[in-house]
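ok so I'm stuck.
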Amino acid sequence: MSPFNVIGEGSDIATIDPGTVLNPEITLMEIPTDAPAVQRTVERLKEIYPDTLVVILSEKVCMATLAACLGAGVNGFLTRDISSEALLESLQLVVLGETVLPTGLATLLQHDDADWNPARVNGGKAADLSDREIETVQGLLRGESNKLIARRLNITEGTIKVHVKSVLRKIKVSNRTQAAIWAHAHGISPGSLTLPFTHNRKARLDNGKQFPGN
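replied:
not stuck anymore, here's the structure
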């Protein structure tokens, strides 16, 4: 009774014959948790079927694997324990142009999961981000609005919007959630929740001397 018809299946991407299965609207893939292998597999699938929408089914959520999948252009990432009803609803959302991600993602972004093996912040594409852009991404990891990030960094909300757009462009993702996933997988932590000193405040040392707040 679903709106989808299964037109082919395979145990490995190497067994796919494009001449047998023509232009599937959606490809549903079960994957291992090895991030590089996942990215290669998705990219190979996209070479065979450039227009197919790709939805991943994984045993569990590993942030590095999720980031690799998003980087490869998947349209959905779901866990295998999802109910059949929720799976069908998710596939329909993907057809409508939405990117579907697992529930509880915000909690995972706030806490390291056991299988997360982050890259160094100053390695790879993370090195392309400025210090201020990394601070902005930390705010995204905490789920903060542009207004709250701006208040925390003592800059204007408009400047934060510029930083967010710059981050999305540099790391090649389309929205704030994907940026947060990417950041987590590249070793950027949410950081401190303490509001910094503003520029017109002073901090006093025990000996009575003053220095400007940061």
